[in-house]
From TrEMBL:
Organism lineage string: Bacteria, Pseudomonadati, Pseudomonadota, Betaproteobacteria, Burkholderiales
Role summary: Catalyzes the interconversion of L-alanine and D-alanine. May also act on other amino acids.
Signal peptide feature range: none
Gene this chain is encoded by: alr
Species for this entry: Comamonas terrae
N6-(pyridoxal phosphate)lysine modification, residue list: K35
Family: Belongs to the alanine racemase family.
Name this protein carries in UniProt: Alanine racemase
């Protein structure tokens, strides 16, 4: 028997979360963001459930090729554009739309020999200061692109740095619209946070929204809203089993560094899950976890392949009992990934993406 740890992907939850975004912005088109192998879920595991999107967006050409080979004929957008000139050949061949964020990418397009007119998303650096043309240089980049025979259609995009806080996107929003005001073309500016928090405003949702994290059931502005607050469902469950039980007495310690010391008798379970599975080592004693669907806490340090949990609230639990590290327990109880992430000082994004290759991924409903 393999180690009992599994990441279960829930297609019904992905469908539900996509529908939830649709409901928030019914008249916008929707890119399902599947970068980083669909936020760690596996593109092949989410594709069918997210087919109701209007397009798929990612960074890697290999991921774009994968979505095409799964049978997707609709729009695909490379959010960082191409990384070298010959990537443009793949774009021509597969009909990929691509972001253009720097002069070099325009140079490469100008030198690209193709019969296929490219659809590009001209990226503005409206304040994030990562990729994109500054507002001052944006219109000259547009003019250059617009003069290229290789370019068929130009759309406009930017990305928010602070969409999860009140008024965090106002400045970038104003700069983006002021700069693109009279330019013809579609616009895409909103990530999950902007879509859920401000998508009721037409100037925020624009033509295309770009939700990522919300599709996977993590709240983009946790803890202000949690998963239930946004009516989301977890799309991934990380689960394992108890593979050992210890009875601690007063003064006994648990794990490396003896970070937990029992004050009195305590029944403790050892779980087949550690940081080598992607569970964050930063989670200290007290991180929430479900055993047989009952909420309890971790004890001591997470080690490479194991961690410990307090069995006090679940006296019937023992060898082989189900442990839910995040997601949905067999009985239906839910532990939001955001709560575990908060205990580790990080975000649900990082936890999903960090699930290790040694953890088997199973799609619910497809069996093992
Ligand atoms: C990752 C990404 C998104 C999605 O962001 P979420 O916060 O996961 O919704 C949208 N747009 C761009 C350019 C991205 O890189």
């Amino acid at each position: 028997m393999p180690r009992p740890i599994t990441a279960t992907i829930h297609p019904a939850a992905l469908r539900h979360n996509l529908e939830r975004v649709r409901h928030a912005v019914p008249d916008a088109k929707l890119w399902a963001v599947v970068k980083a192998n669909a936020y760690g879920h596996g593109i092949e595991n989410v594709f069918e459930a997210l087919r109701a999107a209007d397009g798929f967006a990612m960074l890697d050409l290999a991921e774009a090729q994968q979505v095409r080979s799964l049978g997707w004929r609709g729009p695909i957008l490379l959010l960082e554009g191409v990384f070298e000139p010959r990537d443009l050949e793949v774009c021509s061949r597969l009909g990929l739309w691509h972001a253009v964020h720097c002069d070099e990418q325009i140079d490469w397009l100008a030198a690209h020999k193709t019969q296929v007119g490219h659809r590009v998303f001209l990226k503005m650096n409206s304040g994030m200061n990562r990729l994109g043309f500054t507002p001052e240089r944006y219109r000259s980049a547009y003019a250059r692109l617009n003069a290229l025979p290789q370019v068929d259609e130009i759309s406009f995009m930017t990305h928010f740095s602070d969409a999860d806080v009140d008024h965090g996107l106002d400045r970038q929003l104003a700069v983006f619209h002021a700069t693109t005001q009279d330019l013809p073309g579609e616009r895409s500016i909103s990530n999950s946070a902007a879509t859920l928090l401000r998508g009721d405003a037409a100037e925020v949702r624009c033509d295309w929204v770009r939700p990522g994290i919300v599709l996977y059931g993590s709240s983009p502005d946790f803890p202000r809203h949690d998963m239930a607050g946004w009516q989301l469902q977890p799309s991934m469950t990380l689960s394992s089993r108890i593979i050992g039980v210890q009875m601690l007495g007063a003064g006994d310690t648990v794990g490396y560094g003896s970070r937990f010391r029992a004050e009195g008798p305590l029944r403790m379970g050892v779980v087949a899950c550690g940081y080598a599975d992607g569970y964050p080592r930063h989670c200290d004693t007290g991180t929430p976890v479900l055993v047989d669907g009952v909420r309890t806490r971790t004890l001591g340090r997470v080690s490479m392949d194991m961690m410990a949990v307090d069995l006090t609230p679940v006296p019937q639990a023992g060898m082989g009992s189900e442990v839910t590290l995040w997601g949905r327990a067999a009985g239906g109880a839910v532990l939001p990934i955001d709560e575990v992430a908060a205990a580790a000082g990080t975000l649900g994004y990082e936890l999903m993406c960090a699930v290790a290759p040694r953890v088997a991924k199973v799609v619910e409903g497809e069996g093992r």
